[in-house]
Amino acid sequence: MRAATHLTAAGRDVAVRIGINQVxxxxxxxxxxxxxxxxxxxxxVISQATRELGRIGATDLxxxxxxxxxxxxxxPLITALVVAGRxxxxxxxxxxxxxxxxxxRALEGMGxxxxxxxxxxxxxxxxxxxxTLLVVFDLVAVLAGFGATSLNGMSGARYFDIVLAxxxxxxxxxxxxxxxxxxxxxxxxxxxxxxxxxxAPTEIPIAASRAVVTAIVGIFLCSALFVALG
Amino acid sequence: xxxxxxxxEHVPLGRHASQPFSLEIPAHHTVAVLGDEDSGVGLLGGYxxxxxxxxxxxxxxxxxxVAALPEPxxxxxxxxxxxxxxxxxxxxxxxxxxxxxxxxxxxxxxxPKEIDGRVNVMLAAVRLAGVSQLxxxxxxxxxxxxAALARAIAFDPGLLVLEQPFDGLTARVASELLELARGGExxxxxxxxxxxxxxxxxxxxxxxVEHVYxxxxxxxxxxETV
Lengths: 230, 226
What we know:
The complex is a heterodimer.
Chain A: H1 2-5, H2 9-26, H3 31-55, H4 61-100, H5 103-109, H6 114-151, H7 156-166, H8 169-195, H9 203-229
Helix pairs in contact in A: 2-6, 3-4, 3-6, 4-6, 4-7, 4-8, 4-9, 6-7, 6-8, 8-9
Chain B: E1 6-11, E2 21-25, E3 30-35, H1 44-48, E4 58-61, E5 64-65, H2 71-78, E6 81-84, H3 96-107, H4 112-125, H5 141-152, E7 159-163, H6 171-182, E8 185-186, E9 189-190, E10 193-198, E11 211-215, E12 221-223
Parallel strand pairs in B: 3-10, 3-11, 6-7, 7-10
Antiparallel strand pairs in B: 1-2, 1-4, 4-5, 8-9, 11-12
Helix pairs in contact in B: 3-4, 3-5
């Protein structure tokens, strides 16, 4: 936060440009993958559930399944795993390379805070990307659920009725909070491991691997914490 | 008498050094300290800028122990010193032009237009105007070194610390870069004080360097015979 407030106007322009680039790589380039995963997951789960719950006349529970299981729990988790796997690795490897090539030292030598130039834009980009991809994931999941229930004979009006009836304000803010928390993890953990590298190029893949593993563990722990506190 | 812009006081260097390193770099002088890798000569630039902290002793820049300053002040202070690190340290994902502009963008309150104007002048001075859009990996060693020097003098500093600035360059190019680094002449000598570290220096440059010292493995500082 302090790094952000000490930026000059021209420095802020540079940081914003890097942040936008990060969003392009982290969010825009991952839309296809997130759409695919969300669509397949939701379609499979809702298809099976519609059939099984239909037998006992409990298809109303599909709304709860979509909202609680997919939108609120699996959506943030899978999106965070995608972002950590794709961009967490890239951030850690990039910053580790900056470190090994002496670029971080050169920045410090010029009086530029590496946190301002390297970490802050990636952190902000990860937050924005995580939030955007989660919205994409949830929208696609709801639409895929609609496709699955339609194929099993449920009308669209009824499907959207039971989904909207199950969706409360708490689900929305919990999902948003998770997006922010997971975005923080994906922005901070890889940056830390990337910059912790000293001078050996052999440390780069190790840093990338450690960053992703730590971020994934962090995401699962954080998710469990949300469930425990929620 | 003017305070020396850079002073090393009893700084231990190298594993084999029998005595700590002390040296004053007089204002408006160009001073080179040369030595093998084992001598620890490569540590001096980092100590001067407070990038590394010596185990004992201290390095004073303009009478300030940079390494002892709190981080924000340390970063701000370094803008008073130009630094060309060994290996140039250019950011690979930026063009040469953006590399030169970077310290001005982050360290000056100037408008983008003013920064662009200043960068144009600097690129012309180091003769990079035609290739300024190249990334470091696309440029040759001479162009990269020119860009790194332009970046080091972006704030028109009074003191320049150059690590291995002439390695791999022809004597003619090295001589040209040294003149650019000196920034013209003043009544007392060069306009800037320059501290050079490295293993060797082209003989052609020796007449433009007021003091050349050879650092031995034992940590002894001997005036180089020209």
